[in-house]
Design goal:
Layout: E1 5-10, H1 14-27, E2 30-31, E3 40-45, H2 50-61, H3 64-69, E4 74-79, H4 80-85, H5 87-92, E5 98-100, H6 108-118, E6 123-124, E7 145-149, E8 151-152, H7 163-167, E9 171-172, H8 175-187, E10 192-196, E11 204-205, E12 208-209, H9 210-218, E13 225-229, H10 238-246, E14 253-255, H11 263-268, H12 275-288, E15 293-300, H13 307-320, E16 324-329, H14 337-343, H15 350-374, E17 379-387, E18 394-398, E19 404-408, E20 417-425, E21 430-435
Parallel strand pairs: 1-2, 1-3, 3-4, 4-5, 5-6, 7-10, 10-13, 14-15, 15-16, 19-21
Antiparallel strand pairs: 8-9, 11-12, 17-18, 17-20, 18-19, 20-21
Bound molecules: S-adenosyl-L-homocysteine and FE3-S4 cluster.
């Protein structure tokens, strides 16, 4: 059998990165960075905001000419946009050969075989997959970090969010499978594993909860660091906080999206917690781990958000002092409760939302920078991940608090945990000096 040569473009979150690596393994394909060399081209798409989904579609358009020149080329779309628009994509895009939903990756190889034999244009978007975690991701040799999925889908019903629609209900992966994948990666030289899921800390199977899972993974020999993302505020438990504080391998960083500082907006968003609940969760985390880094996601301009509500978000950001966060202007998504509100009188003017976003980001920029500057003079343990993008005599890694550190060093240090003295705190990263 000839091996497949795959060109794959990945948009969106860590799940999509993980899925792209699974797609590579599902096809037993080698990867090319040049679509002209590929016999299969796949765009793995993100539907979280309108901009993301348009980007994915316009990217598909770019392969029209390639397909015209080479009719044997198979062009497919996978991921959340594939799931969301399904059939419509096949109708609208004549050069598209298949549509593959995020749950359907295990069936990809036979799908491609069918396409070649019958010239069909299949749409595979069923959630009804017997083994949703079948097909492990391809792991690039020498890469010291890796994702391990512990959960697919999401059971929350945040009013703005398309994820539950396109990724289905929450399915939690059995401990032994998670452990086996972690062990396989460690044997390949991986030092740091990030457990991924839409709401990782909601993970539970039988009597086991997320805190128990952290302990199990924490016992694996050879593993040096454990991260996890994304956490859902309501599902932070005492057991989880204790596990984080007690297991030395667990990094003191949590990504804990708050979305808004206003109780009224949180309720409209159906986030199921209040501002005070969130503040209290952060306090519990900081009491147990005074050094913990806290990052977050924010949405501004959700329908119904008043100036006063936005001030509440600003004051929360002031009060918590996040290490960093991602912030977005609300984008209506088809079929969501948020979209209904957005169609009503509740819509926030685009200009207003833009201004709020700019104000929020501007304020946080100062905090993140100040926090980065506080690190100057301190020694940090850094897991060296790769050569810096701009200069190959520099290396790049991260501290346990998820701060990026660049420093001069030889590439033999990649994959090692090293001590670095911080010399400079920048807007989004640190610079330092290797200490041997
Ligand atoms: N649980 C997920 C959240 C996925 S979406 C995770 O693993 O990260 C990531 C972030 O995008 C959300 O936290 C939210 O801040 C933002 N987001 C989601 N839907 C959005 C929308 N319709 N408009 C703007 N931002 C959105
Ligand atoms: Fe989306 Fe809320 Fe789940 S943000 S992924 S519905 S926790």
């Amino acid at each position: 059998m000839k091996t497949e040569t795959l060109y794959i473009e990945t948009y969106g979150c860590q799940m999509n990165e993980y899925d792209s690596d699974r797609i590579q393994n599902a096809l037993g394909a080698s990867i090319t960075k040049n679509p002209k060399e590929a016999n299969i081209v796949i765009v793995n798409t993100c539907a979280i905001r309108e901009k993301a989904d348009q980007k994915a579609l316009s990217s598909l358009g770019r392969f029209k000419h390639l397909k015209a020149k080479n009719p044997e080329l198979i062009v497919g779309v996978s991921g959340c946009v594939a799931q969301l628009y399904g059939e419509e994509l096949i109708q609208k895009i004549p050069h598209l050969d298949f549509v593959l939903g995020p749950r359907a990756i295990p069936g990809l190889a036979s799908l491609i075989k069918d396409i070649r034999e019958t010239r069909s244009r299949p749409i595979e978007t069923s959630f009804d997959v017997e083994e949703p975690f079948d097909i492990l991701p391809y792991h690039q040799e020498g890469k010291p970090t890796a994702f391990v999925s512990i959960q697919q889908g999401c059971n929350k019903k945040c009013a703005y969010c398309i994820v539950p629609t396109v990724r289905g209900a929450e399915v939690n992966r059995p401990v032994n499978d998670i452990k086996a994948e972690a062990q396989y990666l460690i044997a390949k030289g991986v030092k740091e594993i990030t457990l991924i899921g839409q709401t990782v800390n909601s993970w539970k199977l039988g009597k086991l909860k997320f805190g128990d899972l952290l302990r199990t993974i924490g016992e694996i020999d050879g593993l040096e660091r454990i991260r996890f993302t994304t956490s859902y505020p309501r599902d932070i438990t005492k057991k989880m906080v204790e596990a984080m504080a007690q297991i030395p391998k667990v990094c003191h960083h949590i990504h804990l999206p708050v979305q808004s500082g206003s109780d009224r907006v949180l309720k409209l968003m159906n986030r199921t917690y209040t501002r005070n609940w969130y503040i209290d969760s952060v306090k519990r985390l900081r009491d147990a781990m005074p050094d913990i880094a806290i990052s977050s996601d924010m949405i501004v301009g959700f329908p119904g958000e008043t100036e006063e509500d936005f001030e509440q978000t600003m004051s929360l950001v002031e009060e918590i002092e996040f290490d960093s966060f991602f912030s977005f202007k609300y984008s209506p998504r088809p079929g969501t409760v948020g979209e209904e509100l957005w169609r009503s009188d509740e819509r926030v003017k685009d200009l207003t939302a833009r201004e709020r976003l700019a104000r929020l980001q501007n304020y946080q920029r100062g905090i993140t920078l100040a926090k980065n500057m506080e690190r100057v003079g301190k020694a940090e343990q850094v897991l060296v991940e790769e050569e810096s993008r701009n200069d190959s005599s520099w290396l790049c890694g991260r501290t346990q608090h998820n701060r990026i550190v660049n420093f001069a060093g030889r590439k033999e240090l990649i994959g090692k945990m090293v001590d670095v003295r911080i010399t400079e705190g920048l807007a989004n990263s640190l610079r330092g000096q290797y200490l041997n």
